[in-house]
Design goal:
alpha/beta; TIM Barrel; 12-stranded mixed beta sheet; two-stranded antiparallel sheet; 17% strand; globular; binds S-adenosylmethionine; binds iron/sulfur cluster
């Protein structure tokens, strides 16, 4: 088993493939005000769906304590996600707590943007520096279909404007692309944000979870996405900003900004995956496609010391051998397997992408 080592002041805990644990994605709620067809389809997540009861959800104090322990083991970046993080009551108070953790140099948040207009100022004041807004299209009718709610894109766009106004820059816009659903609108999305400084990242539709009806035919590959956009706006490849960056970057040849593609299906990047995930109910998950997770909440509530928690996390990360997307790629019959017919996978809304 790999033991954590101390190098130039920072703890380096590595997994079986030598990958350090650098990022922690914290899902602060399993609830959401949208019902995106690829994540929480309305026919499954209806009025009677039972989300986590309050006592099962980590309190802000518990989340902060765990984040501190993760930071002590080498995590430097936190991303707040969900479900929809902005539906968690008093979220800015959590951000305030996390900002003060030694060793954390970057805190970001991913949101569907619906509540952003009213919350951007408080989030910024609490110390948040960066946000990612999910926006799959600018077409209201397509957006209604994809989000499972009759809202359209107006409020999300207003949320982005407000985020800019309060200084939550630079903003990333995440766009999941599905063939036959919104792939004909990606050039419009690129055009809309070109020259604004915001970076649109087009994401291949992933087979995460068991309930979103994933089909290989619905995946539009990064290559196709780049082909479509560069036919309109010539692009030049850019170097990654850092090891493990999930998006492959391209600049507009005319110097008006950049876009990214996240090719989790067609070009997996498990080799550089440094991301751990903490579910709303306190489980540590080491891969987007994991089956369950390790219960840290019971340890925490059972009186474990910080050292006990660090030892539990170290054990899990040291034994981590996840590389789901790479194995899927190598599998000749991966369409069925990847569609979740072979085993149960955790759902996206529980771990937040
Ligand atoms: N509710 C927030 C939001 O939508 O931004 C945060 C949580 S959401 C699960 C995080 C990201 O996962 C979103 O950008 C969403 O589009 C993406 N996502 C969800 N299901 C996906 C899938 N099957 N394939 C690719 N991306 C997915
Ligand atoms: Fe909600 Fe985000 Fe999932 Fe859409 S992708 S249902 S906004 S958690
Ligand atoms: Fe990381 Fe798992 Fe995704 Fe590979 S499949 S990049 S290990 S989360």
């Amino acid at each position: 088993m790999t033991q954590p080592t101390q190098q130039s002041g920072a703890m380096t805990l590595t997994d079986k493939f030598g990958r350090p644990m650098r990022d922690l994605r914290i899902s602060v709620t399993d609830r959401c005000n949208f019902r995106c067809t690829y994540c929480m389809p309305a026919e499954i997540f209806g009025d009677r769906y039972e989300f986590l009861p309050k006592p099962e959800i980590l309190s802000f104090e518990e989340t902060e304590r765990l984040a501190r322990v993760f930071a002590g083991l080498g995590v430097t970046k936190l991303r707040i996600t969900g479900g929809e993080p902005l539906v968690r009551a008093q979220l800015p108070a959590l951000i305030e707590k996390l900002v003060g953790i030694e060793g954390i140099d970057d805190i970001a948040l991913t949101t569907n943007g619906f509540l952003l207009k009213q919350m951007a100022g408080d989030l910024k004041a609490a110390g948040l520096e960066r946000i990612t807004v999910s926006l799959d299209t600018l077409d209201d009718e397509i957006s209604k279909k994809m989000s499972g709610r009759p809202y359209g894109v107006g409020r999300t766009l207003e949320g982005i404007e407000e985020a800019v106004r309060v200084g939550l820059n630079p903003i990333k816009i995440d766009t999941v692309v599905q063939r036959g659903v919104n792939d004909h609108t990606i050039v419009d999305t690129a055009r809309h944000f070109k020259g604004t400084g915001h970076i649109v990242r087009f994401i291949e539709f992933m087979d995460v979870g068991n309930r979103n009806g994933w089909k290989l035919e619905r995946v539009v590959t990064a290559k196709e996405i780049i082909g479509k956009i560069s036919a309109e706006f010539p692009l030049v490849p850019l170097e990654p900003n850092y090891r493990g960056e999930v998006a492959t970057r391209y600049a507009y040849a005319d110097g008006t900004g950049e876009i990214g593609v996240i090719a989790s299906v067609s070009m997996p990047f498990c080799g550089d995956c440094t991301r751990a995930r903490l579910t709303t109910d306190g489980r540590l998950v080491t891969c987007l496609f994991a089956s369950g997770g390790t219960d840290l909440k019971s340890l925490l509530r059972g009186g474990a010391s910080d050292e006990d928690l660090a030892a539990a996390i170290t054990k899990v990360w040291s034994n981590r051998g996840d590389r789901y997307s790479e194995l899927r790629e190598a599998n000749t019959n991966w369409s069925d397997k990847a569609a979740g017919k072979d085993r149960k996978k955790i759902e996206m809304y529980q771990i937040g992408g």
